[in-house]
Here is the input.
Amino acid sequence: MHMADALVSPAVGGIFWAASAYLTAKSSAVAKNDNKSGGAALMGVLAAFVFASQMINFSIPGTGSSGHIGGGLLLAILLGPERAFLSMVSILTVQALFFADGGLLALGCNIFNMGFFPCFIAYPYVYKKITERVPGSKGIMTGAVMASMAGLVMGAFFVVLQTTISGITSLPAGVFMMLMLPVHFVIGAVEGFATAMVIIYVYARMPEVFNGGSPDDRGVGMKRAVAVFSVLALLTGGFFAWYASSSPDGLEWSILNVTGTTELDAPQTHIHALFSSLQDMIAPLPDYSIKGETYSENMGTTVSGIVGSIITLTFAVLMGMMFSRRKSRQ
Amino acid sequence: MRIRDLYKTEIYDERRETALPPLLLLYVTLTYIITVVSFDRYQTLRIVPLAAYPIFVGLFSGVSCRDLLRKMTAVMPFVILIGIWNPFFDRIGTECFGFMISRGWISFFSLMIKFLMITASTLIMVSAAGFDGLCRCAAAMGLSEVLVTQLFLLNRYIRLIVEETHNTLRARVFRGGRITLSNAGNVCGPLLMRSLSRSEKIHNALLCRGFDGTLWRGKCCMNRLSMQDIVFGLFWTAYFLIVRFFDISRIIGDLTVRCVI
Here is the structure.
């Protein structure tokens, strides 16, 4: 479910960067104030554990597919929402930087989709509520499965919204949702089941481990931040889901209504005019024709573009090799 | 993600002798990413000159092309899954090399080129700056101490825990045990308990060394910029802006064709 940089626009990436940065700052403040003994080492090792355990794929009998434990939920159960969120931030950062799983611009989106929902929504409002009412293994199993499904489906829903608003895919939002949500519903159930099995196993042997996640420890500021983002997420989801499905290409629709055309003219600045006249002067394909032969607009543009691209990239290769040799000589 | 991919992270451990400060690399890479994603989905050819940046920095820092490709292909399926629908839903035709092609295919290729270029630039940045360098740079920029410490610790212990996971799985497979959903607790549970006891040992070891919540001291000298660094940053920023606002490949192409004909 990791979003790549190529799937988000700068505006969407920037908005979710800001939201995630705010949540990270709030969580860091809570984690710093909560001076728990061994907290830093525990967070580091458990994040590494989640990273490693997500590579263990359990085969699901009779389906031919596989699943792994849900990282965000397990961390929230063991560490509490804020520390779990920070651990998820570190995991997603390492995945983006080391393994190209995600990206720098999309990091905010990924943190929001895979950190915010399981740690701040699914854990306190689904898992906690269920385990408080249903004690024992049955409660852990039901709570983990329900919370994992809720967290994953909310995350998948936001992947659809972020991609659609970014204007990357031509897939209508409704169809995209129908492709994403049922699959993540099933994956969520499998992840929840695997997570519950691990919790039940450890709970039977080391029950003292499970005292890190009390929502009562959280400051008022953090609760307010979570409430604000939950409302914003709900509003954004509701508004954009309607907007995206009723008008698949929102940007073009807006431009058409404002200007009467779906494309805007290039800005007429002095620099544009200078380069435009320079281009007209040196262009061997005025009106895309060579020696009286008329070429189509696309053909001319394509040929020039390819030639130019090849030259630019060759230049980059030569420069790179030159500097590399110079460096090794030094 | 496969376990053997994790063991390949050693190539990122040591900062390469690029002499480029992490802060500069982070700035140029972020500017690069924003420039690439700001292009419209049908502007496939206009993005291509931007490949010059990862090519140049990749060659300059000596990153293995094979390793880059291996990592990129591992995460490509999700992008393909989202982009492959474009040709089915965007069927408006346009001419390319005398052939009619749907705009959906153009946007799909554009997406894939963007993905390859951005992913390569990010991996090269980490390889050239080093993870420690980037963490120190982030700390100098004001990222919270808790998160920076967490990143340092995760980076240090990730391989340790992975190795333990690998041993557990190997032992289970050698004894003929299958890993299924029903025995998830028996496989991951002991691993989690061992990780927890290990975290206690690490915490005690950190306390013995005077750990007070911060893993580094002093200002980050790696972020000092020389004149060459400033020129590097300004050059690439100017290049990205020129490519963004002018069809540079077409201008160079026109000029070349004019000289040849």
About this structure: The longest helix of chain B spans residues 145-174. The mean pLDDT of chain B is 80.
